[in-house]
Amino acid sequence: MKFISKIADATHELFLRWVLINVTVAFAVAGAAYHGLLHIIYLNDPSYLTYLITLLYLAVTAYTGVRTYWVSRQQKLLKEFKQKLHEEDIVDITKTDSIIFNHLADLRATGKNDQTVILMCRSNDVHDKHEVIWHYGDVLVNLGLVGTVVGFTMALWPFFILPEFTFEAVKGVLGTISGGIAVALFTTGLGITTSVIIKVQARYLETGTNQLMTQLAYLTETKLIPILRVDEN
């Protein structure tokens, strides 16, 4: 990932990581489609769980992308604010809508130079919006396990309704048995795979969020609070 840091030094490094993950996934899906694997997976699933897993995965990925872009943008604005503060030594809380300006506005509104409670509330608010990503990452695995149950139920059900266990009777339900096993394998594999991808994205997002809050706390303690104290005096 070092080359990403080089090309994104002044841009959205975190968001570019999200893009890289999804471009890689897109190429993998295109390869699977080219070799006919998607046709096998989706057209041989009478339970339609693979469709549900895919739609849920796309929705969670899109939400993760939005949140990743927001955190990446806040990191960029924080860096620009720090640079401007170093060059001009002024603080303009009305210039833009970002976490650093809102944080400073809250500090001024409270009239206190202790940011502990404000920072904790702000951090909790940001992290709470990311909990849904982890939740649906687990839901994808659970849907895959449901597919396992449904698939093996479909595979074994003919044995419960066969009038007699003869070679001809078993031969007649082999298609149903193989179809049920296919459902079990495809839904489980798809659920686990999509869950892993979602959680990788979520891990990068959480790491970026922690870095953002750490940078915010450090900048406030070392630069902004001293300025507020000077203004009060």
TrEMBL record:
The keyword Membrane applies. GO terms for cellular component: plasma membrane. It holds the Pfam family MotA_ExbB. Coiled coil: none annotated. Signal peptide: none annotated. Keywords: Cell membrane, Membrane, Transmembrane, Transmembrane helix. InterPro entries: MotA_ExbB_proton_chnl. It is found in: Cell membrane. It is a multi-pass membrane protein. Residues 128-216 form the MotA/TolQ/ExbB proton channel domain. The chain crosses the membrane at residues 20-42, 48-70, 139-161, 173-198. Its main location: membrane. This is MotA/TolQ/ExbB proton channel domain-containing protein. It comes from marine sediment metagenome.
